[in-house]
């Protein structure tokens, strides 16, 4: 019996980011209030492009822009800060 060898699917490793204490406080507040911001690969474009998905109370919104490895986490942090400032009263 012969087995077919499957080609390995392309993969992307996310860029690495170290979060500081204030950023973690903001992210923790957002996550505990059902607000999350995540990156996912944009397979339709170049290998260094990422898209951002924002989930608020189980509704997913996708940022129409695409970001490179160097700027994606800056935008993620910007989104978390925006929602923290908007809803944390």
Q: Compute the CA-based radius of gyration.
A: 17 Å
Number of helices: 2
Shape: elongated
Q: Helical content, roughly? A: 25-40%
Low-confidence stretches: none
How many strand elements? 4
Mean pLDDT: 87
Q: What is the chains' assembly state?
A: single chain
Classification by helices and strands: alpha+beta
Q: What's the SSE pattern?
A: HEEEEH
Biggest sheet record: 4 strands, antiparallel
Strand content: 15-25%
Distance between the termini: 66 Å
List the helices and strands and how they pair.
Blueprint: H1 21-32, E1 35-41, E2 49-56, E3 59-62, E4 67-68, H2 72-87
Antiparallel strand pairs: 1-2, 2-3, 2-4
Helix pairs in contact: 1-2
Give a description of the structure.
- This protein has 89 residues and is an alpha+beta fold.
- The chain has 2 helices and 4 strands.
- The chain has helices at residues 21-32, 72-87, and strands at residues 35-41, 49-56, 59-62, 67-68.
- Strands 1, 2, 3 and 4 form a 4-stranded antiparallel beta sheet that branches.
- A hairpin with a 7-residue loop joins strand 1 and strand 2 (49-56).
- The protein is elongated.
- The model has no long low-confidence stretch (mean pLDDT 87).
Q: Keyphrases for this structure?
A:
89 residues, elongated, 2 helices, four-stranded antiparallel beta sheet, alpha+beta, 24% strand, 31% helix, 4 strands, single chain
């Amino acid at each position: 019996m012969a087995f077919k060898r499957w080609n390995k699917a392309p993969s992307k490793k996310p860029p690495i980011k170290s979060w500081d204490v204030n950023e973690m406080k903001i992210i923790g507040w957002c996550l505990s209030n059902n607000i999350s911001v995540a990156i996912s690969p944009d397979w339709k474009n170049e290998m260094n492009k990422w898209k951002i998905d924002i989930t608020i109370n189980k509704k997913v919104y996708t940022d129409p822009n695409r970001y490179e490895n160097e700027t994606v986490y800056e935008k993620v942090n910007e989104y978390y800060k925006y929602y923290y400032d908007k809803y944390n009263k």
